[in-house]
Design goal:
The protein is mainly alpha-helical. The protein has a domain of about 45 residues. It contains 3 helices and no strands. The longest helix is centred in the N-terminal third of the chain and has 12 residues. It starts with 12 loop residues before the first helix and ends in a 32-residue tail after the last helix.
């Protein structure tokens, strides 16, 4: 152990608990929405990675917005993938 204490937390334990509770109730779906909520309710600014770390340590994993246009899908027209086989529904 190196003995470094690190930076003080921006949110109190009570605020972190409220953040987890709001997430459990579906208050937001993305990290950006959660970041805006924290700024609005607590006046605390976070970057994407900062709030991501806070939420991950608390066990919260909001959905990540995907690019428009169905990027990442492996099925082509008619439900046929790259290998030509049709997947069962």
């Amino acid at each position: 152990m190196h003995g470094a204490l690190g930076r003080a937390a921006r949110l109190t334990e009570e605020q972190k608990w409220a953040l987890v509770q709001e997430s459990a109730h579906g208050r937001w779906r993305t990290y950006a929405e959660a970041r805006d909520w924290v700024q609005e309710h607590y006046g605390v600014g976070y970057g994407y990675k900062g709030l991501y770390s806070v939420l991950r340590r608390a066990g919260v994993r909001p959905k990540v917005a995907l690019p428009a246009g169905g990027a990442g899908g492996c099925l082509g027209p008619g439900g046929v993938g790259k290998g030509g086989a049709v997947r069962a529904p």
